[in-house]
Specification:
Oligomer: single chain
CATH topology of the largest domain: Rossmann fold
Low-confidence stretches: none
Number of domains: 2
CATH architecture of the largest domain: 3-Layer(aba) Sandwich
Largest sheet: 5 strands, parallel
Shape: elongated
Strand content: 15-25%
Helix content: 40-55%
Order of helices and strands: EHEHEHEHHEHEEHHHEHE
């Protein structure tokens, strides 16, 4: 039987992940009282059980001692019982924004502030996060990408390195993306905007792509950046980074940056265990 625990920060997407697992054929149970976890596992792992995939959602709640759940999970690990933990996480600012938009009450905030509740919950969950098999930071994660990564793990039996890379093209005239980890400026290349037949196209159109890539400097840039990323990515994974945003910028974000972001995406997409997406922020402005 494949047994999965889904937990994490309130507002980080646990319910979404549970729904996706249910669509994959998992028998899902959410918010089970902690004292029943052992009995639940025994029920489905015993002989004669027809259920082969089970997902159990665990929340931090004001009326339960999460330490008991943590002790139960650690005891199962010591007994070599096969189960996996998915931990859903997000930046504190993102969690605050989501709670304010939903107008929900944080489960452990009590009479304190929302910020205090998030801080307390993060402290309660820190040990479980440390033993999690898969950590998803949903701060900037598209629902589609989360589904693709869960499919890879639980349907395709792929490997996952707890890192999702987003390659992002942008225009400097509209500002550098606030969430960028690495920023590369490709304004050193000639601008297709000043060529009449290319002006209204984007870097995803073949004539613009071919024009940008016709310059030797573009190929040299890609080789140097690819080499740098091959060094950085495994070290980011080793240090526990869960999300990496690689931003490629030109003046308007429609030509050079789009072409080169696409080239970097193609070079990275089949090179590791990580998930990868591409976004062109300013392509259609």
């Amino acid at each position: 039987m494949r047994f999965v625990i889904v937990t994490g920060m309130s507002g980080a997407g646990k319910q979404t992940a549970m729904k996706m697992l249910e669509d994959m054929g998992f028998y899902c149970v959410d918010n089970m009282p902690v004292p029943l976890i052992d009995k639940f596992i025994e029920l489905f792992s015993g002989p004669g059980s027809e259920v082969s995939k089970v997902a159990l959602g665990l929340d931090v709640r004001a009326d339960q001692d999460f330490d008991e759940a943590e002790r139960t999970l650690l005891a199962l690990r010591r007994k070599d019982y096969p189960f996996e933990i998915i931990f859903m996480d997000a930046d504190d600012k993102v969690l605050i924004k989501r709670y304010k938009e939903s107008r929900r009450v944080h489960p452990v905030a009590g009479s304190g502030s929302l910020e205090e509740g998030i801080k307390r919950e993060r402290e309660i969950l820190k040990n479980v996060k440390n033993i999690a098999d898969y950590i998803f930071d949903t701060s900037n994660l598209l629902t589609r990408v989360l589904k693709e990564e869960l499919d890879k793990i639980f349907l395709q039996d792929g490997e996952y390195a707890n890192l999702i890379i987003r390659v992002l093209s942008f225009g400097f005239k509209y500002g550098i993306p606030a969430d960028a980890d690495l920023v590369f400026d490709v304004r050193f290349l000639p601008n297709p905007f000043y060529i009449d037949e290319l002006k209204l196209m984007t870097g995803n159109d073949a004539p613009v792509h071919d024009y940008v890539m016709s310059f030797p400097e573009a190929g040299e840039f890609l080789e140097k950046v690819s080499s740098l990323l091959q060094f950085l990515i495994p070290n980011y994974v080793k240090e526990g980074k869960h999300q990496l945003v690689i931003a490629i910028g030109c003046t308007g974000g429609r030509h050079r940056s789009v072409t080169l972001a696409g080239e970097i995406y193609q070079r990275l997409k089949n090179q590791g265990k990580y998930g990868i997406t591409i976004t062109h922020r300013d392509e259609k402005l």
